[in-house]
Amino acid sequence: MITAAQLRAARALLGIDQRQLADLCGLSVPTIQRMEASGDVIRGNVDSLMKLIAALETSGVELINDGSVSQGGGRGVRLKSSAKSPQARPEDSTPGPRAA
C-alpha cells in the first residue's frame, strides 16, 4: 500500500520527474499524475501499483508503512542504506561554515 504523499516524496528523494518515473515503471504519465493526485492511499489497477512499487524499490526507495519500525512513526519513505542519492556529492556532506 502506498499513499500519494509517499509517491511524491519518493520521486523527490530520487530527484526524478513524473515522466522519468513513468519510464522506470512502464506506466503512462497521466497514470502517474492520477496516482499523485489521489487523496490518500492510491487505488487502481493492481498490476500498475505493483509495477510502481517495484520500480521505486529497485531505484533504492524503501516505503515505510503504518506500524513499521521508524523513529517518528507513521508512513514515509527513505532511501535504502545501500542506495546513494544521484545528487549527493562528497563536498555536500563535509561539515564547515556556510555562506550567509
Task: Considering the chains and any ligands shown, give keywords for the structure.
100 residues, mainly alpha, 434 Repressor (Amino-terminal Domain), 2 strands, globular
General description of the model:
With about 100 residues, the protein is mainly alpha-helical. It has a single domain, classed as lambda repressor-like DNA-binding domains (434 Repressor (Amino-terminal Domain)). About 40% of the residues lie in helices and about 10% in strands. The chain contains four helices and two strands, in the order ααααββ. The chain has a two-stranded antiparallel ribbon. Helix 2 packs across helix 3 and helix 2 packs across helix 4. The chain is globular and about 30 Å long. The relative contact order is 0.18.
Order of strands across the main sheet: 1-2
Portion in helices: 40-55%
How is the CATH topology named?
A: 434 Repressor (Amino-terminal Domain)
> Can you name the CATH architecture?
Orthogonal Bundle
Q: Please report the distance between the alpha carbons of the first and last residues.
A: 42 Å
Report the uncertain regions: 84-100
Radius of gyration, CA atoms, in whole angstroms: 15 Å
